[in-house]
Design brief:
The protein is α/β, with parallel strands linked by helices and 275 residues long. It has a single domain (9-273), classed as Vaccinia Virus protein VP39 (Rossmann fold, 3-Layer(aba) Sandwich), CATH 3.40.50.150. Helix content is 35%, strand content 22%. The chain has 11 helices and 9 strands. The strands form 2 sheets. It has a 7-stranded mixed beta sheet, sandwiched between helices. A two-stranded antiparallel sheet has the order 6-7. Helix 1 (9-22) packs across helix 5. The longest helix has 15 residues, at 33-47. The chain is globular and about 50 Å long. The chain starts with 8 loop residues before the first helix and ends with a strand.
Length: 275
């Protein structure tokens, strides 16, 4: 297990928050049907664009569920995260999974990828569930991919955009602060996990496309939880099972179409590095 290196204050607070949540993370989310739906959508998206036996660099790898899944398909994954607590749980799960030969691990922030001990190059870089929303310098993260990817290597990022219709709908319940929190701009939005307060930022697909357009081509862009409710509405699938099934079908059908693919609780974007 790697020794953690100093990070910027923004990252330190996010790391502290996820350190505390790491102990209960799987318990909180493993039974959430919407979380499982999101994982299935992201995994299907990635499988559709990567080659067999790919080498993958995973950013903000959390407790390692995605890494273990892709290892079970024959891929090799180098997992990274700035949270030492998450790393501890992840390493335990990797050891128990029997895929230690497929998964390596390092404690490193996505804003300090130049310090990675395993520089690759990789076939694919992956970041799930809005981990990149914990930085105010997404441009630096995107720039660092250039030296870490092979020729024609691919990227899949799952990021929270500036507009979620489900959150905006809370305006009609009088929850103004939550309804408008994604519009906070450069100063960021206050967030808290397990009593630890930190800041996050929201980015539209246009930010990623604009920053990477010179050296990358867009492969896929789709919404995640625009029609389907976000995971904080965890009781929705139980109370309204038929409606939930219908919303999943609608999202799968229309999720890649404009303008729905540029909004939602998240968007999934994949790009390929040019020759």
């Amino acid at each position: 297990m790697s020794t953690a290196i100093p990070y910027q204050p923004v990252e330190e607070k996010a790391g502290e928050a996820f350190d505390k949540q790491s102990i209960v993370f799987d318990e909180l989310f493993s039974a959430n049907q919407i979380v499982q739906y999101k994982r299935e959508r992201v995994r299907s998206h990635i499988i559709s664009i990567i080659n067999p036996s790919s080498s993958i660099l995973e950013l903000n790898a959390g407790t390692g569920d995605d890494a273990i899944y892709f290892a079970s398909l024959g891929h090799s994954i180098h997992t990274t995260d700035l949270s030492v607590g998450m790393q501890k749980i992840r390493c335990q799960k990797i050891q128990a999974s029997g895929f230690e030969d497929k998964i390596s691990d390092e404690c490193c922030s996505f804003t300090q990828l130049e310090n990675l001990k395993q520089q690759g190059p990789y076939d694919h870089i992956f970041s799930n569930f809005g981990g990149l929303n914990c930085t105010n310098d997404l441009a630096k993260v995107l720039d660092s991919f250039e030296g870490l990817l092979k020729r024609k290597g691919t990227i899949t990022l799952v990021i929270m955009p500036k507009f979620s219709i489900w959150e905006f709908g809370l305006l009609f319940k009088g929850k103004w602060k939550t309804a408008f929190r994604r519009f906070s701009g450069k100063k960021g939005t206050p967030a808290h996990i397990e009593g630890v307060h930190f800041t996050c930022w929201y980015y539209n697909p246009s930010f990623v496309l604009r920053h990477l357009r010179k050296n990358y081509e867009l492969l896929e862009l789709e919404t995640l939880c625009h029609f389907v409710p976000p995971s904080f509405m965890e009781n929705f699938p139980v109370k309204y099972s038929q409606i939930y099934s219908k919303l999943k079908s609608i999202e799968r059908r229309w999720g890649k179409s404009w303008p729905w693919n540029r909004m939602g609780d998240y968007f999934i974007i994949s790009l390929r590095k040019r020759d």
